[in-house]
Amino acid sequence: MRARDLAAPYPTVHADAPAVDAARILTEAGRPALVVVDDHDHPTAILPASQVLRFVIPRYIQDDPALARVVDEEFADHMCDSLAGKTVAELLPREGPKLVVVEPDDNVIEIAALMAGNRSPLVAVVDGKGSKAPMMGAITVASLLSGLLPERITDPG
Fold first, then answer.
1. Where are the domains of the chain?
2. Residue 124 φ then ψ, to 5°
């Protein structure tokens, strides 16, 4: 199985897009991350959903999760207000999963090794070399694993 066989359309955003819009796309599409693309639809970065959480949850609560028990519902209702006026570029992690790009002919083992080695929840499939090649689609860990797992055998008895 090759990357072209597993690649599927995938939501993308531009770095200058509103952060709130990116968060909505993540939740509505139920995706583990978004691919950030440039003006040529070439992938440039990955925005993991967990990074959006890191942005909206105050640092002091991340440092001491026990403090979350004393936060009231009104505070929780307004946590995402911190996304207002921010762009996707401002949410991108300085460290963390890097964008992994594969070519259509890459095989499933190559893709799996890259995903595992980079701790990436997805890879972008790009047809062509260079920084101007548009993204064909993406492969998530879930879609990769579903292509690798053997068919489920049902017990006739």
1. 3-148
2. -95, 140
Determine the pLDDT at residue 10. 93
Residue found by looking up tokens 């893709």 in the block: 111
Q: Which residues contact 68 (CB under 8 A, 6 or more apart)?
A: 61
pLDDT digits (tens, 9 = 90+) for 64-123: 888 888 888 887 777 778 888 999 999 988 776 788 899 999 999 999 999 999 888 899
Distance CA 44, CA 36 (A): 6
Instruction: Extract the tokens encoding 68.
Output: 């979350």
Interatomic CA distance for residues 127 and 134, integer angstroms: 7
Of the candidates 73, 144, 149, 79, the residue with the CA atom closest to the CA atom of residue 111: 144
Look at domain 3-148 and name its CATH class. Answer: alpha beta
Q: Rounded to an integer, what distance in angstroms lies between the CA atom of residue 12 and that of residue 42?
A: 10
DSSP letters of 102-155? E-TT-BHHHHHHHHHHHT-SEEEEESSSSTTPPEEEEEEHHHHHHHHSPPPPPP
